[in-house]
Amino acid sequence: MRAVVIDQFGGPETLHVVDIPIQDPAPGQVRIRVAAAAVNPVDLGVRAGKIIAHEQARFPMVLGWDVAGHVNAVGEGVTHVRAGDKVIALSPQGITQIGTYAEYIVLPAKYVAIVPDGVELTTAASLPLAGLTALQALEKLSLVPGEMLLINGPLGAVGNFAVQLAARQHIIVLGAVHEKDAELARSLGVHIALDRQKDLAEQVHQVIPAGVDAALDLVGGAAIQGTLTAVRDGGRYATVIPDAALRSGGRAGTASPEWKIPSGPFVPQRSITASSILVRSDVTQLASLVNLLAAGQLITRVTDVFPLERASEAHQLLAAGGLHGKIVLVP
Known about the structure:
It comes from Reticulibacter mediterranei. The chain is α/β, with parallel strands linked by helices and 331 residues long. Helices cover 26% and strands 29% of the residues.
């Protein structure tokens, strides 16, 4: 089969198509004939050597976390899907090094969810990583109807889903966007559009003097401090940025984590509960998301569809930023 691989960590030019053997599914596994694989920021991090330790890397390495396609073969003991079923899955490539930029992929059946009729596979491929990250971040923040949530990147892949899912829970969403994108943000469920070019915390406190109940950081870096400052005393803060959280002697997301910003590490004050989100594959949650998509109650956007041979170009386009949708590769 054809697959996009890297033989070493580096820039987009390291991506190239090769022929590699097709694997058979073991007990409890399924083989999927890939119809579409989305490109995510984490793929750029893996490619650059920022996610997988150099000494643990296995080359040639196939990249990609999101996959949509048809079940091609099932291993012993698999009962909830069968050959021919239209499915999606999240492959935690940064942990397993099993990537989706290929014509076929073998995954544990417990990762695989059925795609309802009426959902295009190129659309479905944009859902697993970003959708599960958004859902699990909101789960971590434990918001209730009427509470106020600040999202500092509401129009990115994760932010798009986080805004819609929060609005469905009757949470009041504040989103930081460019002025030209304010109407798009409101159409997704942002109640109060803030200007991302101006001081975020100052704008929040002008509208909500005590601060928001919670904040979801999808930007990291210099945005962390301003986002935290916008949270009320005793509020909650979560980030999906992999290198944002540091913890001496424990895992990120535990009590009193340190957070890294350009000026150095700091510990959140004012009794703010801070946590980092590491997405996990959850087939029940994934099924709920794709059913919302099928019912028209969740919107996703695909901006470009490229063949596998143009994976390098897809990475460059994503790195350039400014996209309001996903890039998808097709074999």
